[in-house]
Write a structure and sequence with these properties.
mainly alpha; 3 helices
């Protein structure tokens, strides 16, 4: 395998899991904000219609992130095939977790 292919492969192996984790973090943030808005509506006793446009837009953003996550997971699968074909990589069915995903408060740290 050429040196350039190895460098590109290493960068991709680092960037893909980080991208997956970033999307998950964004999904968590949007979901938390959505829950906070709805809880605030309940806690303050305002009419259910209050802030409904914001709630709908956040729900739409949430679904867009779910779609983005699905697309990146598909890209990950395709890149595994490319790695096997062009770089001769021994790609296993499961990839190691992103380093960014290992830390306090994350499931990866509990499982470790």
């Amino acid at each position: 395998m050429s040196y350039q292919i190895r460098i590109a492969s290493d960068r991709i192996k680092q960037d893909v899991p980080q991208t997956e984790t970033s999307i998950d973090q964004a999904l968590i943030s949007v979901s938390n904000l959505l829950a906070t808005l709805v809880q605030a509506r309940v806690d303050t006793g305002v009419p259910a219609a209050t802030g409904q446009i914001a709630v709908r837009r956040l729900a739409k953003a949430q679904m867009a992130l779910v779609e983005a996550s699905s697309d990146v997971l598909r890209v990950h699968g395709e890149l595994k095939k490319v790695g096997q074909e062009f770089a001769g990589l021994d790609v296993h069915d499961t990839c190691p977790p992103a380093q960014a995903a290992v830390g306090p408060g994350n499931l990866h740290s509990v499982a470790a």
